[in-house]
Fold:
Amino acid sequence: MPEQHRVEKTDVWAERGLVNSTDAWGLSMQGDSDEIRLHNRLVDDYLMFAPSLAQTMESASLSAAPLSKCLVGQLLLMANSSETLAGASTLLEEVDSRSLNYRERRHFDALSRQIMGDSIGASNVLAECVSETPSDVVALRLLHFSLFNQGRITDMVNSVRTARENWDDALPRKSLLDGMLSFALCETGEFSSAEPLGREAVLSNPNDLWSVHAVAHVLEMQGRWEAGIQWIHESESALQAGGSFAGHVWWHLALYFLESGRHDDALALFDEVIYPNPSLEGLVLSNAISLLCRLEFVGVDVAERWQGLAEGLVYRLGHHSHPFNDCHYAFALGRLNKANELEALLQGMELWSGFDQELHSSYVLQACGFRVAKGMAALGSGDSHLACAELTEAADSWWRLGGSAAQRDLFSQALIRAQINCRMDQSNDHAMQRVNARPRSPQAKIWQALAIDATGGDGSSAQREAVALGWRSETDLKSLR
Structure:
């Protein structure tokens, strides 16, 4: 580096009162002692889904430490709204790029790319950070979720393994890496490897909700609903003390209840911890929509619960950086008979899909997201034939939407529901695929019973098998045709 540049950079640091120091992971960052303590708290709140995260973000957004501003910007972008995009952009503008050290410049670059919608480019920058400095837990965690949202599960596995293999045992939060690897391995179907890693992570840190969540996924994908119920109840104290992400873990418990027809228990969870109050938060809305859909698909009356989602859905119109959530919103708007808002959502998605294809969300919308949204909207609006056509066309590609296999199963269930409504023979094939994948699943047997009955057969035998496997709900097959 030329001497003149070094002097200029030092002058900038002095002017802004910044000093070189290290964070809790021993990595370089600028800031005074108070700012570094605040940054460490911000990182830890993020890693642990702490209920204090929002307050810590607010404080950190005022910090002069560039790395804190970059992390707050990334966290704001995860909300996927026009408002938070503007907030992240403002934070980026407040960072004096002349003052950045190498690590900070990489995080600045990743945030810049993410703001522009280049999530692939942003994740590539973060991947380089992890490769160069495996203990950069901020880069690792941001990369973990970015790759997850892109459906790049193999890359998720590889990035966490790189960090684990090069992690110093003395550094904080090492056990979280086991939970991250557990989740990634679960999404690749390596359940026997995933489960012990996740359980060990929770044993090391019972408040690690991402690791609790990882094991919940393993048990869900294996159809082990009783073990899943026990697992989440064992983490009840951590969930009650946790932040908003705890609602998603409770959502998994509701799926276990659904598995065995305990629909009153699932509805009670919806009211108490999954959607206790109207929300504008994307994950909270998608959890709620997904659960109400799955309940109605098997004939459960959810009463007026859809109405509580309306405000959040309207707020979400116009910004389409997360097509996975948009596909949920499309069903809900159709189900609520909000034709104007649904039209606005679909028109916005179509327009967004025509943007620069280097924007990952535009690519996903064009590849499958817009079609899935149209299919979900049609099903919610009562047009099962259109839903069948759109969802069938997109079925091989909806992994591109991101989300977990358990979350994307909503789209599989929506397709079967549409086929049953249309009395299509294909519903029998899809229902049998579910039974073959989960032979001990009562709910899979109910889907088989519904499909058989809708296509002119007698589904009562499959329904009796479901009851023998633990199904507790009275399901009127005739009324669900």
